[in-house]
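Record type: monomer structure entry
Structure origin: computed from sequence
Chain ID: A
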Amino acid sequence: MNAAAGNPAPQRNSAAHLTRSRLLSILAALAILLIVCAAAGALFGSAHISLVRAFSDPTSPDHAIFFGARLPRVLMGVIVGAMLAAVGTALQALVRNPLAEGGILGISGGGALGAILALVMSAKLGGGEAAVPLCAFGAALLSTVAVYRLAMVDGQLEPFTLLLVGVIFNAFWGAAIMLVNSVVNFYYAHSILFWLMGSLEAPTYREAAMVAGLGLAGFAVLMFQARDLNLLSLGDESAAELGVDVDRLRRTIFVATSVMIGAAVSVSGIISFVGLIVPHTLRLVFGADHRLLLPASLIGGAAFMVAADLVARVAIAPAEIPVGAITALCGGPFFIYMLRREGRRPLSL
């Protein structure tokens, strides 16, 4: 299959030219970009604050706004954006489809449904906050496996079939979420709308720490598999001949990405296209070596999310746009561009 065969030459070349100095210089440049975006996100918003008063007077409104609202929100944006971009990078390599992304494939929708059901059921039966990310992870994992299995045709993964299955799953999960929304009270209906539109509104430091822990664990697994993801671009058979246990690799990536998506969705709802825009932009600039692309996507996704959230907060201040709407407005045209670009040749990385 053409999509399985891919185009191995650019992959080998990009991997061969990756040096420690190049890796560190690229990541340092992206880290500076992230720091600038994070500083802007913490300093600017619908209300003007004095940074001096925020640090010097714990009783001032400036202190409450900076440390109670903006800083945890920026931290959550960094964490969620980093995870979504890294997941998109891993999924694109795993299924050898440059249009694969957690939101597009319906994985985020499944995770959101799991989180919503956990939220509603925990209020009625108990179970605590821990049940929400756990159920989101389980639903995201089931969605990942189901989408992958249904996209297999005669034992081969069909790229366009994968996209169609993802569209169907998105519609199904959306209908299921609306069904839940129709039978719950107003409080839960507002929370469900939050999950559907995607938002970083009112996070806490505890939530940020929990999601960061899950995200770092999942990313560590992805980085450990970076070399095998490079080899997988040559095709299943070629990768197996080079010593890659393809089935084990897929199971490992499925679990790691599901943990990351489940954790992100449980606090931010469905935020799409971050895992499409960031990896492709960085891949075009820096190449397709996942030893570089994965950490670069982690940092780049964090910067992109913080910038998008800043736009969401200030565009129509004092009102606020859900950040998921901002990423969708950016990602929709980008997705159409990629679809037309890849439609001229077999889908491959």
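Annotation 1: The two ends are 14 Å apart (CA to CA).
Annotation 2: The CA atoms of residues 240 and 246 lie 6 Å apart.
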